[in-house]
Amino acid sequence: MKVEIKKNAGAGEINVSVPYSLDFNDKAKKLGGKWAKSDYHGGKWVFNAQVENLVRDLCLDIFGTDGTMSVNTVTVKIKKSAYHLKGPVSFHGRTLASAYGRDTGAKLGVDVALLDGEITSGGSFKNWYTEVNGTFLIHNFPKSKAEKLGLEIIEQDIDVKIKNLETERTRVVAWLAEIDSMLSSLKAN
């Protein structure tokens, strides 16, 4: 997850690039942020430089980083049943699924997997919605935020490798102790 805050000292502004998040967008507007669309890279948020600390705190709250530090991430497992009128369904700053109209169906968000259930679109032509009902895995979720929220953390590949190596080490140490015991008894005879 890329979060980047750049100072534009000449203009007295900061430019902020973050993944799409309804939570961030709503709070960014309250801090005076303006969305500046770019032809090539989507766009960026522009804030008065005087609210930089508040923007950094907002990024930490939503994304687990303000871009100045690396963040430990995990995969979390959640159950969610919700819908959102004319927009995506989000979970703590992460888009679970988004539709673009009544008949478009829904697409999973970045780093999201649907284990069971469904994602869909519905409603009327003017008042369409995105709907989710199921169990989701959200990858690259900030570990500190997952722990703070009490979310179910799924073991990461590195955790599995560490446990496997520890198990193998325990087995080998026990086997070496058995060999030492057999050697001692053979030498005693």
Tally the structural domains.
3
List low-pLDDT spans: none
Order of H and E elements: EEHEEHEEEEEEHEH
Beta strand %:
35-45%
* First-residue to last-residue Cα separation: 65 Å
* Main sheet record: 4 strands, antiparallel
In terms of structural class, how would the helical and strand content be classed?
alpha+beta
Instruction: Give the strand line-up of the largest sheet.
Output: 1-2-4-3
Rg, nearest Å: 24 Å
Q: Please tell me what the overall shape is.
A: elongated
Helix content: 25-40%
Concise summary:
The protein is α+β, with helices and mostly antiparallel strands and 189 residues long. The chain folds into 3 domains: 4-63; 73-154, no CATH class; 157-189. The protein contains 4 helices and 11 strands; from the N terminus they run E-E-H-E-E-H-E-E-E-E-E-E-H-E-H.
What does this structure look like?
- This protein is of the alpha+beta class.
- It has 3 domains: 60 residues; 82 residues, no CATH class; 33 residues.
- It has 4 helices and 11 strands; from the N terminus they run ββαββαββββββαβα.
- The strands form 3 sheets. A 4-stranded antiparallel sheet has the order 1-2-4-3, covered by helices on one side.
- The longest helix is centred in the last third of the chain and has 32 residues.
Can you tag this structure with a few keywords?
4-stranded antiparallel β-sheet; single chain; 3 domains; 11 strands; 189 residues
Helix and strand topology:
Layout: E1 4-8, E2 13-17, H1 22-30, E3 34-38, E4 42-48, H2 52-63, E5 73-85, E6 89-91, E7 94-99, E8 106-108, E9 112-123, E10 128-142, H3 143-149, E11 152-154, H4 157-188
